[in-house]
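Page 42, continued from yesterday. The earlier attempt failed because a stray header line got pasted into the input along with the sequence. Redoing it now with the clean sequence only.
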Amino acid sequence: MHMYWLYGIIVALIVLGVFYISIYNALIHLRQKVQEAWSGIEVQLKRRHDLIPALLDVVKAYANHERLLLEKVATERTQLAAGTSQTFGDRAQSEAALGEHLKSVIAVAEAYPDLKANQNFLNLQQQLSETEDQISAARRIYNANVSLFNTKIQSFPASLVAGLQRIVTCEFFGTEL
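This time it went through. Structure tokens are written below.
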């Protein structure tokens, strides 16, 4: 009779172990999806950072007195491209500010008819617009993965496994870049 109890306990422990491992693996899978989605954002942000110097050079030729704005954008781009050790939230805010300053650069360009007609400027503006769209799409994918991951972590019984393994929720990437 005691042997059945022992077998029952062993079977229960095996079932719990398999259950624990499957939940842990699901959490790791979701975390990988979040990291993969973040990589997609990083690619687009790098593309945007790479376009900025060419855009600034074209605008500088036409808008010499707008130098402060152009220097500010160049400085922000350099700091962000250098990958300084910012927190995730700070990085998102810095990228959003850079996006707003880029809109200002485009607005400055509107004041110069020759610049608006410049093929190089138009090409850069088109590429920048496409990149901004791709950043938005990558951000949506990232935030969807973060939502799935955070929901899983906060749901029972995965919350127990996440707590034991010190797996924490991820931050969403802001709506404005």
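Notes: The CA atoms of residues 156 and 162 lie 10 Å apart.
Reminder to self: strip header lines before submitting.
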